[in-house]
Amino acid sequence: MPSPSDSIDPANGVSRRSFMQTLGASAAAASITSSAQALEQRPSLKREPGVEGPGPIDIVLDVNGQPRRLRVEPSTTLLEALRLQIGLTGTKEICDRGSCGGCCVILDGKLVNACMMFAADAAGAKLTTVEGLASGGALQPVQEAFIRHDALQCGYCTPGFLVASAWLLKETPKPSLDQIKKALSGNICRCGTYTNVFNAVLEASGQPVLIDPILS
Ligand code: FES
Ligand code: FES
Description:
Layout: H1 16-20, H2 25-41, E1 57-63, E2 66-72, H3 78-86, E3 104-107, E4 110-113, E5 126-128, H4 141-148, H5 158-171, H6 177-183, H7 194-204
Parallel strand pairs: 1-5
Antiparallel strand pairs: 1-2, 3-4, 3-5
Helix pairs in contact: 4-7
Bound molecules: FE2/S2 (inorganic) cluster (2 copies).
């Protein structure tokens, strides 16, 4: 699976939706396993047992290209570190259990839920949050497309959708509709903006948009 906690691989069809169907204990177990796998793939993040904690530890997070030095409790999640210590509140806390995708960030090219990993485990990795998608004041095409297609209502889910969409388009520049649905299947929008979100991603990838039979 392409994900620590829940990233998606459009090619093999594994989605965060399927992950989420095993919520609760099994979801937590899956996430822990994935985090361990992520650490395994990044030997620089391995720690000697017993060296750190149980008190606060010093870490450096590379967030949107900037090093951020933090002192965190070992139990501090990446989401808490981003929102409460760094002040990047674009990453949303909604379910806090890996079920909604509101806290999506990109970690070393993988899409992860920041609520499902420890901040200490992200030390040394390159992180991109929704605040880091725009460059030099210019929005990414998919961000512009969200605006054009009115792909939000309350907007609370939107940062997660944007990060997941940007990640998808980097991995798969011209995704099929099925690939888009799979890639975004772990992002929940209670306002039901899915069709407009899909259209935004389709347009941003240079493909024809869907015609909504209800609106047309
Ligand atoms: S807040 Fe992290 S997945 Fe919902
Ligand atoms: S726009 Fe309201 S939850 Fe998605």
